[in-house]
Write a structure and sequence with these properties.
Layout lengths: L2 H5 L2 H4 L3 E5 L8 E6 L2 E7 L5 E5 L13 E3 L2 E3 L6 E2 L5 E3 L17 E7 L2 E5 L19 E10 L3 H8 L5 H4 L16 E7 L3 E13 L10 E11 L2 E6 L9 E11 L2 E10 L6 H19 L7 E2 L12 H13 L5 E2 L1
Parallel strand pairs: 18-19
Antiparallel strand pairs: 1-10, 2-3, 3-4, 4-9, 5-6, 6-7, 7-8, 9-10, 11-17, 12-13, 13-14, 14-15, 15-16, 16-17
The structure holds FE2/S2 (inorganic) cluster and fe (ii) ion.
């Protein structure tokens, strides 16, 4: 049992979580990944299908990811038990006479799928598709994968920080904010349910004056953001590109909850910028994110308190309060204090 099962957090257990870059998992290769207090082994079979199993041999608990993958057979390094694509044991070297149909051992198998260039895993029963991210499918936008960043904090603290504008002047001074312009203008927060964008909460008309809003900017500008939260651990920020072409570019945040207070962070950019190199775009995102990391790692408590009385909030914290209500209503327990 992992903590989502112990806490009865079916919302998080039944959701999809990013665990790897899909292209890194080539046919015949394995990767050990952490998710929801468990170790998983990811592997890709010869037909190109991705598999996600608990990284634990049902015989004596050895990590299967330290074994061998030959074609579509994963062999445990300890006693050589061999497992096929369904996770069923098909050969025990110490009992070579035993026929496959008499073998009962079964690796624990989870749902895995590929979307947006990442591999996603659900350790429970998938309650919906991975997520709605229409900007990703916009061919005018260039996709760049940033991170992953390992952060010693809860996923909800990281989402909340992503939605917060009042820290720009302090944490990202000279890039996303300026200490002479710290006031946050009014913005709107609404629930939404949309065929294209999914459902959740969004904040619109979020204005910030930014000295250097992206990797290409060489002067300050007034930027208008929209933030939307569409899953407990997914948030997407959009803004109109500088040329104002009637569509929006996006920075999407996808969190891999490792434990309740440690998280792997994936960011996908869908941007108009076709001048900067991939490295320049990643470096810009690394700079911003590495400024946020010590903040979210030093908030007390690391889990997000959902009670409105637990921390003092002001008017411009409306989006963060809406996010806390959203988690409360969904019944999320993982990484929060209810
Ligand atoms: S522990 Fe895996 S075969 Fe024994
Ligand atoms: Fe930040």
């Amino acid at each position: 049992m992992n903590d989502t099962e112990q806490s009865g957090d079916t919302v998080i257990a039944n959701d999809w979580h990013p665990v790897a870059i899909a292209a890194d998992l080539r046919p015949g290769s394995m990767q050990a990944v952490p998710l929801l207090d468990m170790s998983l082994v990811l592997w890709r079979d010869t037909a190109g299908e991705v598999h996600a199993w608990q990284d634990r041999c049902p015989h004596r608990g050895m990590k299967l990811s330290m074994g061998m993958l030959n074609g579509d057979t994963l062999t445990c390094p300890y006693h050589g038990w061999a497992f096929g694509t369904t996770g069923r044991c098909k050969h025990i070297p110490a009992l070579p006479e035993l026929r496959e149909q008499h073998l009962k051992a079964q690796a624990r198998v989870f749902s895995a799928k590929e979307a947006f260039g990442l591999v996603w895993v659900c350790t429970g029963t998938p309650a919906q598709d991975v997520l709605a991210f229409p900007e990703f499918h916009d061919e005018r936008l260039r996709k760049v994968w940033c991170g992953p960043y390992d952060v010693a904090s809860s996923a909800p603290r990281i989402v909340e920080n992503f939605l917060d504008m009042a820290h720009f002047a302090f944490v990202h001074e000279g890039i996303l904010g300026d200490r002479d312009r710290t006031a946050i203008r009014d913005y709107t927060v609404n629930r939404f349910d949309d065929a294209v964008y999914g459902s959740g909460i969004w904040a619109r008309q979020c204005f910030a004056w930014q000295p250097r809003s992206n990797a290409l900017a060489d002067r300050g500008s007034d930027v208008e953001y929209t933030y939307r939260v569409i899953r407990p651990f997914t948030a997407i920020l959009t803004k109109e590109p500088a040329a104002q072409q009637g569509f929006r570019e996006a920075i999407s945040l996808h969190l891999q909850p490792v434990t309740e207070t440690s998280t792997r962070v994936w960011i996908i950019l869908a941007m108009t910028n076709d001048e900067s190199s991939v490295d320049e775009m990643r470096n810009f995102q690394d700079t911003i994110f590495l400024q946020d990391k010590p903040i979210v790692e030093n908030q007390q408590p690391l889990k997000l308190p959902l009670s409105p009385q637990a921390e003092v909030s002001v008017a411009c914290d409306r989006m963060s309060l809406a996010y806390r209500s959203y988690l409360r209503e969904l019944g999320v327990q993982y990484g929060v204090i209810r």
